[in-house]
């Protein structure tokens, strides 16, 4: 089976889908691995390292894709690449399938079996394949480092001969994977941390990291079976904003991580909340790529609002591409190993398996995922 790995074409993307150690695993399984020249350079991996791991270096991108049995990527494929893929081939990457309807339909029409890494279930068995979690973990870390870099004071308390420096106050909104990592990182740097989430069930996790869990009565809330926060009503969002306003006003740093899978991120930090914050404070909008949590945030910009900096850089995991690539590579190799037939030396789509049922978006010329298919038919 030929596994092809093209270079990422998304502007500014630094990560690579497979690192040399991942290539070595695939070669050991019996796969032929071809990579496009320069695929890992932005993440610090040379073509020579890939070659030593057993990969062949391809300089013709069209041929690389046209002869592939299995294509591994990080970002969704450029739509023009789809016409190059052979019918019956398998494409694995992030796809954003709830929003990229034209892309998904074209993959189906081409006869490509497309696996969406966002759709990997959050189950114990699929844990090593969960790319959303691995990348969100790093995003939470980077968000705190960026906040510390832009803040006009230090995070930890210090006892000095010139007096005591009080620790910075950090308010994290959203205690999912990224939020919990942001809490842990801010605590390691010595900050005084508060956190809020619509799911009361995460309060214990927040407290176990040494942060205070902020309680705001929103009525009935909760999480989906996959562990994501449920979308709030407009009334609930209004109550949430009112309750959070004073916590934002008292914070030196606010980090927002609230996202709803398959939908635009909710605006939870309004312009008046930013206006209530003190000069020199920092807001990091970790959800900016899905619309943003902060009113006035601009993708890939740092915006000054009366002395409050709103940091809204996209692709935070791409700022630590070595580790981001390594963990994503592990996610991909774990998926492939789970469904690898050792006798035929091929990646096999077991359509009855719960993992494949969840993440296989297109197959045999049709939309395969039942929830996605129903959503497309009603829109």
Outline:
Helix content is 34%, strand content 18%. The chain has 379 residues and is of the alpha/beta class.
Written description of the protein model:
With 379 residues, the chain is an alpha/beta fold. It is built from 13 helices and 19 strands. The protein has helices spanning 20-29, 47-52, 61-66, 79-82, 101-110, 131-150, 177-188, 203-208, 234-249, 271-275, 321-338, 354-359, 370-378; strands spanning 2-5, 32-36, 56-58, 70-72, 90-93, 113-116, 158-160, 163-165, 169-173, 192-196, 212-213, 253-256, 282-285, 301-305, 308-312, 340-341, 346-347, 360-363, 366-367. The strands form 4 sheets. An 8-stranded mixed beta sheet has the order 3-2-1-4-5-6-18-19, with helices on both faces. Helix 6 (131-150) runs parallel beside helix 7 (177-188) and helix 6 (131-150) packs antiparallel against helix 11. The longest helix has 20 residues, at 131-150. The mean pLDDT is 93.
Query: Low-confidence runs (pLDDT<50, min 5 residues)?
Result: none
Structural class: alpha/beta
Q: What's the mean pLDDT score? A: 93
Rg: 22 Å
Main sheet record: 8 strands, mixed
CATH class of the largest domain: Alpha Beta
Helix content: 25-40%
Strands, total number: 19
What is the helix tally? 13
The CATH superfamily of the largest domain is identified as NAD(P)-binding Rossmann-like Domain
How many domains make up the 3D coordinates? 2
Shape descriptor reads: globular
Q: Report how far the terminal alpha carbons are from each other.
A: 38 Å
What CATH calls the topology of the largest domain is Rossmann fold
User: Going across the major beta sheet, what is the strand order?
Assistant: 3-2-1-4-5-6-18-19
